Amino acid sequence: AFVLMVPLAATSTNRMIRRLGGTWRKLHRLVYAIGVAGVVHFWWLVKKDVSEPTEFAVILAVLLGFRMVWALRERTIRKASPG
User: Fold this and answer.
1) pLDDT-derived band of residue 12, with 50, 70 and 90 as boundaries?
2) CA–CA separation, 56 vs 35, rounded Å?
3) Which of these, 60, 70, 65, lies nearest to 34 by C-alpha position?
């Protein structure tokens, strides 16, 4: 997950955003997979008490759920607006 964060950090400048155009958004959507990979990695590291990785998994699931609801709401608003 850390290695996957390096390209995201390198392409987060205003200059790189302009240079990459629409590709930038696709690249930065990797952050969702990276978050899941981080939780899975943490889960694998823990041997007995998985309560802490479970907390992180629940927090990530809630955050991704909010993001999905927000994205669906935005999509619905765009479809409903004239133009």
Assistant:
1) confident
2) 10
3) 60
